[in-house]
UniProtKB/TrEMBL annotation:
Compositionally biased tracts (Low complexity): 1-14
Gene it is expressed from: WDR73
Chain residue ranges for the region called Disordered: 1-22
GO cellular component term of the entry, any: cleavage furrow
Pfam families: WD40 (PF00400)
InterPro entries: WD40/YVTN_repeat-like_dom_sf, WD40_repeat_dom_sf, WD40_rpt, Wdr73
Protein name, entry field: WD repeat domain 73
Species for this entry: Chinchilla lanigera
Matches recorded under PANTHER family: WD REPEAT-CONTAINING PROTEIN 73
GO molecular function, one term: protein-macromolecule adaptor activity
GO biological process, one term: nucleus organization
Length: 404
């Protein structure tokens, strides 16, 4: 899954030609798409402060930062070996101010390794050279070490976890205060372990088999979970299992799949959950009252997610009240939640990244679906996004209001 030729800035890559149906005839809808692509390429000069597009040899579902210059990616294709790569961003993306041209315009492959299984979750353990992955087939965790004296990422152990039926795999999160990994495919299998020794330091100890969709560590002792049904909870590992949670099926979940992320900081009095449903419904909930959403809005998505396991909602670490969503199509949408109130309102994105749609290449190319996205840890409006066509984009968007 090696990084290949870079195609940024926006006008560097031409849109694919319209598909010819027969001699002298053109597909009107494809011609319109061509015109839209050309319009977007011109418009992108105004929409982006910076934009870089890269191609990997296979699609990834993981974009895991290490510092503010490096990122880990891993392939998720079944029945083949998948690369795990440590990539360094181009120098232009690592400087605080525009300092002109740089000779290196591509990702640099710093370390690499191979997994014989699809990597569906990948986390770097802070302040160590360790990675933890999970995936299919089988229910397992694999621990990797990034070599100091070579360019190798090597598997050092495989940890068997509670066997799960139905093709589930453990969701992952890591504690920054100590090398500990939170994992679980269901509430009943939630555990915290030391990735080097494999020792379990905490477990839920319950029989609740509800499926998990996302996990998030909040500090050295607490974490949040979201179940696929929309059920949310906060857990304190210093106490026996007694989460602060929304009881049972969350209001308005309608049987669809959900994911969530907590904003721990910000201007509010406490942690705030953002919970995203497969139909584009997005709810904000005060962690002190998970039964009654502060607001529930309908995002501007074209259709329900075709692959709800790819749903992702993330809070911007460097912007107040901004979040991003993906997993519905080839776009990433950024929203400002400042004025959201009540239930049922329709909201429009502050910014929409459409690059994974308009930079596709080749006739008959299947529509790309964004597989994941992540905010840069220190550059407020810079995001990375990856799509099912193996593209990875790094983009710094321009706020249309000039301030967020």
């Amino acid at each position: 899954m090696s990084a290949q030729r870079e195609a940024a800035p926006p006008l560097a890559r031409s849109p694919r030609p319209p598909h010819r149906l027969a001699a002298g005839s053109w597909a009107p809808e494809v011609t319109v798409a061509m015109e839209s692509a050309e319009d977007w390429l011109v418009e992108s000069l105004r929409l982006y402060q910076d934009f870089h597009a890269f191609d990997l040899s296979a699609a990834t579902r993981g974009l895991e930062w290490i510092g503010d210059k490096g990122v880990f990616v891993a392939g998720y294709e079944s029945l083949k070996k998948n690369e795990i790569l440590h990539l360094i961003l181009p120098p232009r993306l690592s400087v605080k101010e525009n300092q002109g041209l740089f000779p290196e315009r591509d990702f640099k492959v710093c370390h690499g390794g191979f997994s014989d299984r699809a990597v569906l979750e990948l986390k770097h353990v802070p302040d160590t050279r360790l990675l933890v992955t999970s995936g299919l087939p089988g229910c397992y965790l694999r621990v990797w070490r990034v070599a100091e004296d070579s360019d190798v990422i090597k598997a050092i152990s495989t940890i068997a976890v509670q066997d799960e039926a139905g093709g589930l795999w453990p969701r992952l999160a890591v504690f920054s205060s100590a090398p500990r990994v939170l994992h679980g495919a269901r509430l009943s299998s939630l555990q915290v372990l030391d990735p080097e020794s494999g020792e379990t330091t905490y477990s839920s100890g319950i029989s609740d088999s509800e499926e998990l969709s996302s996990l998030q560590v909040l500090d050295g002792d607490t974490f949040a979970f979201c179940c696929a049904s929309g059920r949310l909870g906060l857990v304190d590992t210093r106490q026996p299992w007694a989460p602060l949670e929304s009881p049972g099926q969350s209001p308005g979940s309608g049987g669809q799949r959900w994911c969530a992320e907590v904003r721990a900081g910000g201007s509010g009095p406490g942690p705030c959950f953002s919970s995203l449903g497969a139909d584009g419904q997005l709810r904000l909930l005060d962690a002190r009252d998970l039964c009654h959403p502060m607001s529930s809005v309908q995002c501007a998505v074209s259709m329900p997610s075709p692959s709800p396991e790819l749903l992702r909602v993330t809070w911007a670490p460097g912007l107040d009240n901004c979040l991003a969503i993906s997993g519905f199509d080839g776009t990433v949408q950024v929203y400002d939640v400042t004025s959201w109130e009540g239930v049922g309102s329709q909201v429009e994105p502050l910014f929409t990244h459409r690059g994974h749609i308009f930079l596709e290449e080749g006739e008959g190319h299947a529509a790309a679906l964004v597989t994941t996205h992540t905010w840069h840890p220190s550059k407020p409006r810079t995001l990375l996004s990856a799509a099912s066509d193996a593209s990875v984009h790094v983009w710094d968007w321009v706020d249309p209001r000039a301030a967020c």
